[in-house]
Design goal:
The complex is a heterodimer of chains A (646) and B (337).
Chain A lengths: L1 E5 L7 E4 L1 E9 L4 H14 L3 E7 L14 E9 L10 E6 L2 H7 L3 E10 L5 H6 L12 H6 L1 E5 L1 H8 L7 H5 L2 H12 L5 H14 L3 H20 L6 E4 L7 E7 H15 L4 E5 L6 H8 L7 E4 L3 H13 L3 E6 L1 H6 L1 H10 L3 E7 L16 H6 L8 E3 L6 H16 L2 E7 H5 L1 E5 L44 E3 L14 H17 L9 E2 L4 E8 L3 H13 L4 E6 L1 E3 L5 H6 L1 E8 L4 H10 L4 E4 L8 H12 L8 E2 L3 H9 L2
Parallel strand pairs in A: 2-9, 3-6, 6-7, 7-8, 11-12, 11-13, 13-14, 14-16, 15-16, 20-21, 20-23, 23-24, 24-25
Antiparallel strand pairs in A: 1-2, 3-5, 4-5, 10-17, 15-22, 19-21
Chain B lengths: L26 H15 L7 E5 L14 E4 L5 H11 L4 E7 H7 L1 H10 L3 E7 L34 H7 L4 E6 L5 H10 L4 E6 L11 H4 L8 E3 L7 E2 L5 E6 L2 E6 L18 H8 L8 E8 L5 H16 L4 H5 L4 E4 L1
Parallel strand pairs in B: 1-2, 1-3, 3-4, 4-6, 5-6, 7-11
Antiparallel strand pairs in B: 5-11, 8-9, 9-10
Helix pairs in contact in B: 1-6, 2-4, 3-4, 5-8
The chains are: A alpha/beta (646), B alpha/beta (337).
């Protein structure tokens, strides 16, 4: 990562890096998400590529000072193209002992650890679960392995805000800005983006100009502390990335999903009716859309998950863009209604932001374990379309594409996001608003020839909407007679309609792009992934390819139906590895459908893959050291031990 | 074409071409016939009308109306209907449900459609039994009821659909009987109400719970077992119209007019705007009290879909109609290169 040291007119030397990974960690009330978000915004605006990983507890306020209450925010920022928030932390900011304890293991050997020394007192050390009389900051195990900087952040922050007239509590709340200012100095970032934000948020929005002023003051105090003290011997510079010129904004997956849905509604000349029941980590989509009524968006906070999907189905029947959003447990509740949407052949969008399961599971942690639920979690043979965006910004495109498919094929579409891409952020090059293709919807139906299930060449039935004279019809969950749509219990008809519903979904494959390989189109190993693991897989494959090994990657965006050429692509490789944040759900499908001896790297630890975990698995397969098991868990812990041992 | 020049529709225009498949003698037939008539009388258009139902015998209703219709899944009709109405407030949305569909599996949704005051007419056919699944007790079956699933008698207390509707802030609450002369006029008033209109209709399941409501339909005795509610009028009932309801120590009691000097003025007077009275009336059960029929409660308030549409309009007025360009370029943007 290091690229050279120079001294640019500053008192202290500046070292150029191509990338760095910084993690802010503190109590869930310490404002770490805000500090991280600000650092991300600033880095994006000065032209770095960025990728983030927020990590927070499910409890809004877990007991202060405990490990359970630690909230973290990791940012990878670079002068090169990056796809992940980074495996190893180069600089950790730990606001209390619990944050130190929870995150120190992720810091690279020799890494920077800035701790808020004011908080490392007896009480907090005990709350963090350290033995009486023990302070990790005095333990050679840590002091030798890391560059630990003990800064009394709480005290310095309080002293810098003495003259503001604010109460002690308000003053204390500014300490995240002091820490941020310090890290801004360390990584040579300007303060203006954050100052602008603070003045806007506290000053204008919350009408607390005094608080805004204090935060700015703390931010500057932290920055000047870095500059004037002799604490940090060197500061770092990460040049702007050579990214495609254009207008950018930083975007999270949930934001991208929300504006993607609005854009799609606009392109189809429809109103978006978004019906949802609050659930982590999907609620932000509802929040974003609820604030956008001036785009013709109607949001409906339903009484439960079932009502949410049913009202969206009602909206689709009435001729608008009916959409619902949820996470795993909510998708389970929506199962029966999804069957209704499949049976009535209505266009419906379901956004599923996956989280750790089963049951309530790990609400704030990421996982990809709803794939089989989305695929099969309904009674009867009940196929629908499934799309998985591969990153935060891609949620925008996935939403538009889902609507295009739903409207063209008269079919429900599930979009499989996950907690990692939903909350993670990246720079997004804003597309040209005039550059989108309209989404065709044909409501011009001749009443003379209209029949409810008379299909077109895509096997889609006509979307006749209430209010149209002459097209009155009845639909429902009972099996319907082919063409007429009358209730039918006829056995041959049921077989036919079941076949048609399947064939209709398969037909979608005529309109989706073939899957392409990253790297060579044939070789020793194909690493096949889907959804939010894209960044880690791509980076791992690229890294291993640099050593000349014959590994390629392929990423599935369309899971139902799958691209037509997938079977052929799989055959071109000697081995197939499928890394997934579940216990092997895509692997089961691929093995079953293509009779390929695919192996799985399967992780359910609430966190995305580390690049090195995938690299390690790739090398095991290429070296014929994988062994007989169909799947392995990441071996990174033992790998780390090996390396440490020489 | 102006609305006024459209042809006048008759009940027949609202009949679909499907054969009606309820059991012969089912109370649903009478309701279907009246609903078709009322739709014509209200001047509703078939293409602007949507019937939504859940699952159960009553929920087959949409198939028999030549309107738009959605026979959905068990208990969820209120949610589907809400989605329809939000998406297109111009549609005239009616919902048909039963005591199992609406009060058991779909009880939650019923409560919320009512409190939101979505402008939808809700007809709950109460036959106090599960008919489609062949005769199990329902949430309105009386305690001790012997059915296939309660051979020793039900040990559950029945709930009052009207008490529930009132507690859920319904803005129009009424009751009638499948074969009663007032069915049509009550449906008409429901149809004219702007907001959620909830009508409980006693309906005879002549297969699994025949004559459950005979006390309200028997020509000779029914007037002794029901009170026909009229706004502003005293609560008088009985074949000879000689009985009335009076409050005594805050409790209702049946009194005989003329006896012990009881006059009409001593009786309770019906007031459709009095929610407490409506609730009191909803607690009258046979045989202790005559069961009230008619409109228990009605108040006018903004409907959900109007308020939602207004928010869209207000936001558009304040911030201008959003465009894709504005949407994409919102937030902190920056230029590279």
């Amino acid at each position: 990562m290091a690229a050279g040291t120079s001294s640019v007119g500053d008192r202290k030397p500046t070292r150029d890096l191509s990338s760095a990974v910084v993690r802010f960690a503190g109590d869930s009330g310490d404002g770490m998400q805000m500090a991280g978000t600000q650092f991300t915004d600033t880095s994006a605006i000065i032209g770095n590529d960025v990728a983030t990983l927020p990590d927070f507890p499910a409890e809004i306020r877990a007991p202060a000072g405990t490990v359970a209450g630690v909230s973290g925010f990791q940012i990878n920022f670079a002068s090169t193209d990056i796809h992940t928030p980074g495996d190893r932390v180069n600089a950790l900011i730990a606001m209390n002992p619990a944050a130190f304890k929870a995150h120190i293991e992720d810091v690279e050997a020799g890494g920077i650890v800035v701790v808020n020394d004011s908080e490392f007192d007896k009480v907090n050390l005990r709350k963090a679960g350290y033995a009486e009389g023990y302070n990790p900051l005095e333990d050679a195990k840590f002091t030798q392995q890391f560059k630990i900087f003990r800064v009394p952040i709480t005290r310095l922050n309080a002293e810098s805000l003495q003259s503001t007239g604010l109460g002690a509590k308000d003053v204390e709340r500014c300490k995240n800005m002091f820490a941020l200012g310090m890290i801004y100095w360390l990584y040579d970032r300007p303060l203006d983006t954050t100052i602008g934000y603070l003045e806007d948020y506290f000053g204008k929005k919350k009408k607390l100009p005094q608080v805004a002023e204090a935060n700015v003051k703390a931010l500057k105090a932290g920055f000047f502390f870095g500059e004037t003290t002799e604490m940090f011997p060197v500061r770092f510079h990460i040049a702007r990335a050579a990214i495609t010129p254009g207008k950018y904004r930083k975007i999270t997956g949930n934001e991208a999903m929300a504006i993607g849905l609005i854009t799609a509604a606009n392109l189809a000349n429809k109103n978006l009716i978004y019906c949802s029941y609050p659930i982590t980590p999907a609620s932000d989509i509802l929040h974003t859309l609820a604030a956008m009524r001036n785009y013709g968006v109607k949001t409906f906070q339903a009484e439960d998950e079932i009502a949410a999907v049913c009202s969206a189905i009602g909206a689709a029947f009435a001729g608008q863009l009916g959409a619902t959003g949820t996470s795993g447990p909510g998708l389970a509740l929506k199962s029966e209604a999804l069957g209704l949407a499949v049976m009535t052949e209505l266009p419906l969008i379901v956004v599923n932001v996956q989280r750790g399961g089963p049951s309530t599971g790990l609400p704030t942690k990421t996982e990809q374990s709803d794939l089989l639920q989305a695929m099969f979690g309904r009674n009867g043979d009940c196929p629908l379309v499934i799309i998985a965006p591969h990153g935060p910004a891609d949620c925008f495109d996935a939403a538009i594409e889902a609507v295009r498919i739903a409207f063209r094929h008269m079919v429900p579409v599930i979009i499989m996001s996950d907690g990692y891409i939903a909350n993670g952020a990246e720079p997004w090059r804003i597309p040209d608003a005039a550059g989108f293709e309209a989404i065709e919807v044909n409501h011009k139906i001749d009443p003379e020839t209209y029949e409810v299930y008379r299909r077109n060449e895509d096997l889609a039935r006509p979307w006749a909407i209430p209010g149209t004279p002459g097209l009155q019809h009845r639909i429902g969950g009972l099996e319907k007679q082919d063409v007429t749509g009358n209730v039918s219990y006829d056995s041959a008809n049921h077989q036919k309609m079941t076949n048609l519903r399947r064939a209709k979904v398969e037909k979608v494959a005529d309109h989706i792009p073939a899957i392409e390989c990253l790297g060579d189109p044939a070789g020793d190993l194909l690493v096949l992934g889907w959804g939010g693991t894209y960044g880690s897989i791509v980076t791992a494959v690229e890294n291993v390819r640099k050593s000349g090994r014959k590994v390629s990657g392929a990423h599935l965006r369309y899971l139902s139906p799958m691209p037509k050429n997938l079977g052929e692509v799989l055959k071109r490789f000697k081995k197939v590895l499928i890394p997934e944040l579940n216990m092997g759900q895509l692997r089961l499908l691929i093995r079953g459908k293509f009779l390929v001896d695919a192996r799985g790297l399967n992780k359910v630890q609430g966190k995305p893959f580390l690049v090195e975990e995938i690299e390690h698995a790739i090398n095991l397969m290429l070296d014929d050291k994988w062994g007989p098991s169909e799947s392995l868990e990441p071996q990174i812990a033992s790998l780390g031990a090996e390396e440490a041992g020489g | 074409m102006a609305e006024s020049s459209l042809p006048v529709l008759t009940a027949k225009d609202f009949a679909s071409d499907q054969d009606v498949r309820w059991c012969p003698g089912c109370g649903d037939y009478a309701i279907l016939a009246q609903v078709r008539k009322v739709m014509a009388k209200l001047g509703n258009r078939i293409e602007k009308t949507v019937f939504v139902s859940g699952i159960g015998c009553s929920s087959r209703f949409p198939y028999y109306m030549n309107t738009y219709g959605f026979h959905s899944i068990h208990g969820r009709a209120p949610a589907i209907a809400t989605g329809v109405k939000i998406a297109n407030p111009d549609l005239d949305v009616w919902m048909v449900t039963g005591d199992g569909d609406g009060l058991s599996i779909g009880g939650n949704h019923l409560m919320h459609i009512l409190r939101r005051n979505v402008n939808i007419k809700i007809l709950l056919f109460n036959n106090r039994i599960y008919g489609l699944t062949k005769g199990q007790y329902s949430p309105t079956s009386e305690e001790g009821k012997k059915t296939k699933s309660s051979p020793m008698g039900s040990i559950e207390l029945p709930i009052s659909p009207l008490s529930i509707a009132l507690a859920a802030e319904a803005s129009f609450v009424a009751r009638t009987v499948d074969v009663d002369k007032d069915l049509a006029s009550i449906l008409e008033r429901a149809g004219q109400h702007k907001g959620s209109a909830f009508v409980e209709i006693y309906q005879d399941c002549n297969i699994f719970n025949h004559k459950a409501f005979e006390y309200t339909t028997d020509k000779d005795t029914k007037e002794d077992h029901i009170i026909r509610l009229e706004h502003g009028k005293p609560l008088i009932f009985g074949k000879a119209r000689n009985k009335g309801i009076r409050l005594h120590n805050h409790k209702p009691e049946i009194v005989e007019l003329g006896k012990d000097g009881v006059k009409e003025d001593d009786l309770l007077f019906h007031d459709e705007k009095d929610e407490s009275l409506a609730y009191l009336l909803s607690r009258f059960t046979h045989p202790e009290f005559p069961e009230p029929m008619g409109v228990f409660y009605k108040y006018d308030d903004d409907s959900y879909e109007d308020l939602l549409t207004k928010q869209v309009e207000d936001a558009t007025k304040a911030r201008g109609r959003g465009t894709i360009a504005a949407l994409l370029n919102a937030g902190d943007t920056y230029t590279v290169g």
